[in-house]
Specification:
It contains 9 helices and 9 strands. By secondary structure, it is an alpha/beta fold. The chain binds iron/sulfur cluster (SF4) (3 copies).
Length: 313
Protein backbone atom coordinates (compact mmCIF):
# COMPACT_ATOMS: atom_id res chain seq x y z
CA UNK A 1 0.00 0.00 0.00
CA UNK A 2 1.30 3.48 -0.87
CA UNK A 3 2.50 5.89 1.80
CA UNK A 4 0.18 8.89 1.65
CA UNK A 5 1.57 12.43 1.92
CA UNK A 6 -0.31 15.65 2.71
CA UNK A 7 1.52 18.96 2.32
CA UNK A 8 0.59 22.40 3.62
CA UNK A 9 2.21 25.83 3.38
CA UNK A 10 1.80 28.40 6.12
CA UNK A 11 3.80 31.66 6.26
CA UNK A 12 5.74 30.47 3.22
CA UNK A 13 7.02 31.60 -0.16
CA UNK A 14 6.58 28.28 -2.05
CA UNK A 15 10.35 27.79 -2.46
CA UNK A 16 10.13 24.66 -0.31
CA UNK A 17 7.45 23.21 -2.60
CA UNK A 18 9.68 23.94 -5.62
CA UNK A 19 12.31 21.84 -3.85
CA UNK A 20 9.81 18.95 -3.63
CA UNK A 21 9.35 19.25 -7.41
CA UNK A 22 13.10 19.45 -7.89
CA UNK A 23 13.46 15.92 -6.51
CA UNK A 24 12.62 15.07 -10.10
CA UNK A 25 12.62 11.55 -11.41
CA UNK A 26 13.23 9.70 -8.14
CA UNK A 27 9.83 10.88 -6.85
CA UNK A 28 8.10 10.18 -10.20
CA UNK A 29 9.34 6.59 -9.95
CA UNK A 30 7.50 6.24 -6.62
CA UNK A 31 4.15 7.81 -7.61
CA UNK A 32 1.52 6.41 -7.37
CA UNK A 33 2.35 2.84 -6.27
CA UNK A 34 4.61 3.67 -3.32
CA UNK A 35 3.88 7.33 -2.67
CA UNK A 36 0.56 9.09 -3.04
CA UNK A 37 0.19 12.87 -2.71
CA UNK A 38 -3.31 13.27 -1.26
CA UNK A 39 -3.16 17.01 -0.58
CA UNK A 40 -0.68 19.56 -1.90
CA UNK A 41 -2.17 23.02 -2.47
CA UNK A 42 1.03 24.31 -4.09
CA UNK A 43 0.42 21.97 -7.04
CA UNK A 44 -3.20 20.91 -7.03
CA UNK A 45 -6.36 22.89 -6.25
CA UNK A 46 -7.18 21.75 -2.71
CA UNK A 47 -10.09 23.01 -0.63
CA UNK A 48 -9.96 23.47 3.13
CA UNK A 49 -13.69 23.08 3.69
CA UNK A 50 -14.38 19.71 2.08
CA UNK A 51 -13.86 18.55 -1.54
CA UNK A 52 -16.01 21.34 -2.98
CA UNK A 53 -15.04 23.95 -0.43
CA UNK A 54 -18.56 24.46 0.97
CA UNK A 55 -18.26 22.47 4.21
CA UNK A 56 -18.68 24.18 7.58
CA UNK A 57 -15.32 23.30 9.16
CA UNK A 58 -11.72 23.15 8.07
CA UNK A 59 -10.80 19.59 7.31
CA UNK A 60 -7.76 17.98 5.70
CA UNK A 61 -7.43 14.39 4.46
CA UNK A 62 -5.73 11.72 6.59
CA UNK A 63 -2.20 10.81 5.53
CA UNK A 64 0.80 8.88 6.78
CA UNK A 65 3.17 11.82 6.36
CA UNK A 66 2.51 15.57 6.67
CA UNK A 67 4.93 18.08 5.13
CA UNK A 68 4.64 21.67 6.39
CA UNK A 69 6.55 24.66 5.02
CA UNK A 70 6.47 28.12 6.56
CA UNK A 71 6.17 29.28 10.13
CA UNK A 72 3.05 30.34 12.03
CA UNK A 73 2.11 34.01 11.67
CA UNK A 74 -1.66 34.11 12.04
CA UNK A 75 -4.67 32.27 13.43
CA UNK A 76 -5.34 30.50 10.12
CA UNK A 77 -1.83 29.04 10.09
CA UNK A 78 -2.38 27.74 13.63
CA UNK A 79 -5.71 26.13 12.69
CA UNK A 80 -4.34 24.49 9.52
CA UNK A 81 -1.25 23.22 11.34
CA UNK A 82 -3.24 21.69 14.22
CA UNK A 83 -5.67 20.04 11.78
CA UNK A 84 -2.78 18.53 9.79
CA UNK A 85 -1.08 17.32 12.99
CA UNK A 86 -4.32 15.55 13.92
CA UNK A 87 -4.54 13.87 10.52
CA UNK A 88 -0.99 12.56 9.97
CA UNK A 89 1.18 9.96 11.71
CA UNK A 90 4.51 11.66 11.03
CA UNK A 91 4.85 15.44 10.75
CA UNK A 92 7.83 16.93 8.91
CA UNK A 93 8.88 20.56 9.26
CA UNK A 94 10.07 21.43 5.76
CA UNK A 95 12.47 24.34 5.39
CA UNK A 96 13.98 26.90 7.71
CA UNK A 97 10.77 28.93 8.13
CA UNK A 98 9.03 25.86 9.56
CA UNK A 99 12.03 24.71 11.63
CA UNK A 100 13.34 28.07 12.91
CA UNK A 101 11.05 30.89 11.74
CA UNK A 102 13.24 31.80 8.75
CA UNK A 103 13.46 35.31 7.33
CA UNK A 104 9.85 36.22 8.34
CA UNK A 105 10.86 35.78 12.00
CA UNK A 106 13.03 38.89 11.69
CA UNK A 107 9.72 40.61 12.46
CA UNK A 108 10.04 39.22 15.99
CA UNK A 109 12.45 42.07 16.74
CA UNK A 110 9.46 44.43 16.71
CA UNK A 111 6.08 44.58 18.43
CA UNK A 112 3.20 43.92 16.02
CA UNK A 113 1.91 47.49 16.48
CA UNK A 114 5.24 48.83 15.21
CA UNK A 115 5.19 46.47 12.22
CA UNK A 116 1.62 47.54 11.33
CA UNK A 117 2.48 51.24 11.76
CA UNK A 118 5.43 50.83 9.42
CA UNK A 119 3.62 48.78 6.77
CA UNK A 120 0.26 50.54 6.69
CA UNK A 121 1.23 54.11 7.64
CA UNK A 122 4.99 54.45 7.30
CA UNK A 123 5.52 53.50 3.67
CA UNK A 124 6.31 56.39 1.29
CA UNK A 125 4.92 54.58 -1.78
CA UNK A 126 1.26 54.43 -0.67
CA UNK A 127 -1.24 56.45 1.34
CA UNK A 128 -1.56 55.70 5.04
CA UNK A 129 -4.46 53.36 5.85
CA UNK A 130 -5.91 51.83 9.00
CA UNK A 131 -4.64 48.40 10.05
CA UNK A 132 -7.22 45.90 8.69
CA UNK A 133 -9.12 44.28 11.54
CA UNK A 134 -11.70 42.12 9.76
CA UNK A 135 -11.77 39.65 6.82
CA UNK A 136 -8.12 38.76 7.55
CA UNK A 137 -6.91 36.22 10.11
CA UNK A 138 -5.58 37.68 13.38
CA UNK A 139 -1.81 37.93 13.59
CA UNK A 140 -0.13 35.84 16.25
CA UNK A 141 1.97 37.78 18.76
CA UNK A 142 5.13 36.69 16.94
CA UNK A 143 6.37 34.40 14.15
CA UNK A 144 6.65 30.83 15.44
CA UNK A 145 8.43 27.74 14.19
CA UNK A 146 5.90 24.94 13.90
CA UNK A 147 7.29 22.98 16.87
CA UNK A 148 6.29 25.92 19.07
CA UNK A 149 2.66 25.03 18.26
CA UNK A 150 2.54 21.23 17.68
CA UNK A 151 4.81 18.21 18.08
CA UNK A 152 7.11 17.67 15.12
CA UNK A 153 8.77 14.36 14.24
CA UNK A 154 11.31 15.30 11.56
CA UNK A 155 13.04 18.57 10.67
CA UNK A 156 14.44 19.24 7.17
CA UNK A 157 15.99 22.72 7.37
CA UNK A 158 17.16 24.88 4.49
CA UNK A 159 15.92 27.90 2.60
CA UNK A 160 14.94 26.03 0.63
CA UNK A 161 15.91 22.51 1.75
CA UNK A 162 17.93 20.58 -0.79
CA UNK A 163 15.79 18.09 -2.79
CA UNK A 164 18.29 15.31 -1.90
CA UNK A 165 17.31 15.58 1.77
CA UNK A 166 13.56 15.62 1.11
CA UNK A 167 13.96 12.50 -1.04
CA UNK A 168 16.24 10.89 1.56
CA UNK A 169 13.73 11.48 4.37
CA UNK A 170 10.77 10.23 2.29
CA UNK A 171 12.70 7.13 1.21
CA UNK A 172 13.62 6.41 4.84
CA UNK A 173 9.92 6.58 5.76
CA UNK A 174 9.05 4.33 2.83
CA UNK A 175 11.59 1.86 4.24
CA UNK A 176 9.56 1.77 7.44
CA UNK A 177 11.85 4.05 9.49
CA UNK A 178 10.16 6.60 11.70
CA UNK A 179 13.16 8.84 12.35
CA UNK A 180 15.39 10.89 10.09
CA UNK A 181 17.77 13.77 10.71
CA UNK A 182 20.28 15.82 8.79
CA UNK A 183 23.85 15.09 9.98
CA UNK A 184 24.96 17.45 12.76
CA UNK A 185 27.91 19.23 11.17
CA UNK A 186 28.61 22.81 10.22
CA UNK A 187 28.97 24.49 6.85
CA UNK A 188 32.63 25.07 7.79
CA UNK A 189 33.03 21.29 8.24
CA UNK A 190 32.16 20.80 4.55
CA UNK A 191 33.98 23.86 3.20
CA UNK A 192 37.24 23.16 1.31
CA UNK A 193 38.84 26.63 1.52
CA UNK A 194 42.27 27.28 3.05
CA UNK A 195 42.17 27.94 6.80
CA UNK A 196 45.05 29.20 8.86
CA UNK A 197 43.06 29.69 12.10
CA UNK A 198 43.93 33.39 12.19
CA UNK A 199 42.97 36.63 10.48
CA UNK A 200 44.17 40.20 10.24
CA UNK A 201 41.79 40.84 13.15
CA UNK A 202 39.90 44.04 13.91
CA UNK A 203 36.56 45.27 12.60
CA UNK A 204 34.58 43.17 10.14
CA UNK A 205 34.98 44.53 6.62
CA UNK A 206 31.93 45.79 4.76
CA UNK A 207 30.47 43.07 2.50
CA UNK A 208 30.28 45.51 -0.42
CA UNK A 209 34.02 45.07 -0.87
CA UNK A 210 35.19 41.93 -2.68
CA UNK A 211 37.27 39.40 -0.81
CA UNK A 212 40.27 37.91 -2.56
CA UNK A 213 39.99 34.90 -4.85
CA UNK A 214 41.03 33.89 -8.33
CA UNK A 215 37.93 32.98 -10.37
CA UNK A 216 40.04 30.74 -12.57
CA UNK A 217 41.30 28.69 -9.63
CA UNK A 218 39.37 25.99 -7.72
CA UNK A 219 37.65 26.79 -4.44
CA UNK A 220 40.38 24.90 -2.58
CA UNK A 221 42.81 27.70 -3.41
CA UNK A 222 40.69 30.46 -1.79
CA UNK A 223 41.40 31.66 1.74
CA UNK A 224 38.54 31.35 4.25
CA UNK A 225 36.21 34.33 3.90
CA UNK A 226 36.10 34.98 7.63
CA UNK A 227 39.85 34.84 7.89
CA UNK A 228 39.91 37.50 5.18
CA UNK A 229 37.94 39.68 7.60
CA UNK A 230 34.36 39.32 6.28
CA UNK A 231 31.30 37.96 8.00
CA UNK A 232 30.58 34.31 7.10
CA UNK A 233 28.38 32.36 9.51
CA UNK A 234 29.32 28.86 8.29
CA UNK A 235 30.73 28.00 11.71
CA UNK A 236 27.26 28.09 13.34
CA UNK A 237 25.18 26.90 10.36
CA UNK A 238 24.09 23.34 9.65
CA UNK A 239 25.69 21.81 6.57
CA UNK A 240 23.59 20.35 3.77
CA UNK A 241 22.91 23.06 1.22
CA UNK A 242 24.83 21.19 -1.47
CA UNK A 243 22.85 18.02 -0.89
CA UNK A 244 24.53 14.71 -0.14
CA UNK A 245 27.97 15.97 -1.16
CA UNK A 246 29.75 18.99 -2.56
CA UNK A 247 30.94 22.32 -1.21
CA UNK A 248 28.55 24.82 0.40
CA UNK A 249 26.60 26.60 -2.30
CA UNK A 250 27.36 30.22 -1.47
CA UNK A 251 31.03 29.57 -0.87
CA UNK A 252 31.17 27.82 -4.27
CA UNK A 253 29.73 31.03 -5.74
CA UNK A 254 32.38 33.02 -3.82
CA UNK A 255 29.82 34.46 -1.41
CA UNK A 256 29.74 34.18 2.36
CA UNK A 257 27.32 31.89 4.17
CA UNK A 258 24.35 33.80 5.63
CA UNK A 259 23.05 30.94 7.71
CA UNK A 260 20.02 29.74 5.74
CA UNK A 261 20.15 26.15 7.05
CA UNK A 262 19.76 27.37 10.62
CA UNK A 263 21.66 26.21 13.70
CA UNK A 264 23.72 23.03 13.78
CA UNK A 265 21.59 21.55 16.52
CA UNK A 266 18.31 22.31 18.24
CA UNK A 267 18.63 24.84 21.03
CA UNK A 268 21.91 26.34 19.74
CA UNK A 269 22.31 30.11 20.04
CA UNK A 270 23.93 31.30 16.76
CA UNK A 271 24.48 34.84 18.03
CA UNK A 272 26.53 33.70 21.04
CA UNK A 273 28.32 30.91 19.17
CA UNK A 274 29.20 33.18 16.26
CA UNK A 275 30.63 35.83 18.56
CA UNK A 276 32.93 33.09 19.90
CA UNK A 277 33.89 31.95 16.38
CA UNK A 278 34.72 35.51 15.38
CA UNK A 279 36.83 36.20 18.42
CA UNK A 280 38.79 32.97 17.76
CA UNK A 281 40.17 34.60 14.57
CA UNK A 282 40.49 38.05 16.13
CA UNK A 283 37.42 39.67 14.53
CA UNK A 284 35.35 42.15 16.55
CA UNK A 285 31.79 40.82 16.66
CA UNK A 286 30.64 44.23 17.92
CA UNK A 287 31.60 45.74 14.56
CA UNK A 288 28.88 43.75 12.72
CA UNK A 289 26.18 46.23 11.79
CA UNK A 290 22.78 45.25 13.23
CA UNK A 291 24.47 42.29 14.92
CA UNK A 292 21.37 40.84 16.56
CA UNK A 293 19.53 40.58 13.23
CA UNK A 294 22.54 39.52 11.14
CA UNK A 295 23.57 36.69 13.46
CA UNK A 296 19.98 35.48 13.89
CA UNK A 297 18.98 36.05 10.29
CA UNK A 298 17.12 32.76 9.78
CA UNK A 299 16.49 31.78 13.40
CA UNK A 300 14.23 34.42 14.94
CA UNK A 301 11.74 31.97 16.48
CA UNK A 302 12.15 30.08 19.79
CA UNK A 303 12.78 33.39 21.61
CA UNK A 304 15.98 34.20 19.70
CA UNK A 305 14.56 37.55 18.62
CA UNK A 306 12.25 39.68 20.74
CA UNK A 307 11.38 43.39 20.72
CA UNK A 308 13.93 45.39 22.67
CA UNK A 309 12.39 47.18 25.68
CA UNK A 310 12.96 50.59 24.03
CA UNK A 311 10.90 49.45 21.04
CA UNK A 312 7.89 48.41 23.09
CA UNK A 313 4.90 50.76 23.13
S1 LIG B 1 12.32 28.16 4.07
FE1 LIG B 1 12.88 29.59 2.42
S2 LIG B 1 12.04 28.61 0.59
FE2 LIG B 1 10.99 27.65 2.35
S3 LIG B 1 9.15 28.90 2.69
FE3 LIG B 1 10.74 29.77 3.98
S4 LIG B 1 11.59 31.46 2.72
FE4 LIG B 1 10.50 30.09 1.33
S1 LIG C 1 33.92 30.71 7.61
FE1 LIG C 1 32.96 30.54 5.60
S2 LIG C 1 34.64 30.46 4.13
FE2 LIG C 1 35.50 30.03 6.16
S3 LIG C 1 35.50 27.78 6.32
FE3 LIG C 1 33.58 28.52 7.22
S4 LIG C 1 32.10 28.47 5.55
FE4 LIG C 1 34.14 28.34 4.62
S1 LIG D 1 26.31 28.51 2.21
FE1 LIG D 1 25.03 29.07 3.96
S2 LIG D 1 23.57 30.63 3.20
FE2 LIG D 1 24.53 29.62 1.41
S3 LIG D 1 23.07 28.01 0.84
FE3 LIG D 1 24.62 27.09 2.22
S4 LIG D 1 23.74 27.26 4.31
FE4 LIG D 1 22.59 28.64 2.96
Amino acid sequence: MAVTVASEWLNACSGCEISILNIGEPILDLIPDKLELVHIPALVDSKYFGPTGDGDRLTLPKATVGLVSGGVRNAEHEEVLKELRDKVDILIALGTCATNGGIPAQANMFANEDVFAKVFRGCPTHDAVETPDDLVPCYTENVKAIDEVVDVDIFIPGCPPHPDWIADALLALLDGKTEWALPERSVCDTCPVIREEKSGGGAVKRPLENFEYDPDQPLESMRCIMEQGYLCVGAVTRAGCAGQDGAPRCISARQSCRGCFGPIRKGARPLVDMMGAMSSVGLEARSVIDRRAMLNRFVGSHGNLRPLPARRR
